[in-house]
Structure formats: C-alpha cells, structure tokens
Amino acid sequence: MKQSEKPVAEVSTSEPAVTSVTEEAIRERAYEPYEQRARLDRHALDDWLTAEAERQLKRKSAAA
After folding, report:
1. Which residues of 13-35 are buried (b: 16+ CB within 10 A; e: fewer)?
2. Distance between CA 56 and CA 60 in Å, rounded?
C-alpha cells in the first residue's frame, strides 16, 4: 500500500435485521417523489432525508 493511500474501513456484516428493514422502507418511500418528478435526478439526498424524517415521526407516534 502506498503511503498516501488510507486503509479501507471494514463494514460489519452482523448488523441487526431491523436496520436493513428500516433502510428498505426509507428507500421505497424516497423513491416515490423521484417517480413523481418523472425520474429527474438531483434530489436523491433530499428525498432520502425527507423519507427518513417521516419514518422517525411515524416511529415516535407509534411509541407514544
């Protein structure tokens, strides 16, 4: 390895299944506005953050 190269971080494969379910739900919700915009790009981060916030609000409401 060259001195300027940084080692690649290892990703744990033992993450809880809940994380992947949550990420899948967010991904599906974030895809909806993308389709509504006729699949125009440049909004992926906004769509993801909006879907993630909606998911958090939904979980808080269910816990209350």
Report:
1. eeeeeeeeeeeeebeebbeeeee
2. 6
Residue 40 has pLDDT above 70, yes or no: yes
Residue that wins the pLDDT comparison between 26 and 2: 26
CA distances (Å), origin 9, targets 4, 6, 12, 16, 22? 15, 9, 10, 19, 23
Q: For the chain, what are the domain ranges?
A: 20-63
User: The tokens 């915009």 sit on which residue?
Assistant: 37
Whole-angstrom distance, CA of residue 18 vs CA of residue 1: 36
3-state secondary structure of 55: helix
**Spatial distance between the Cα atoms of 10 and 47, rounded to a whole number of angstroms:** 28
CA distance linking residue 28 with residue 54, whole number of Å: 12
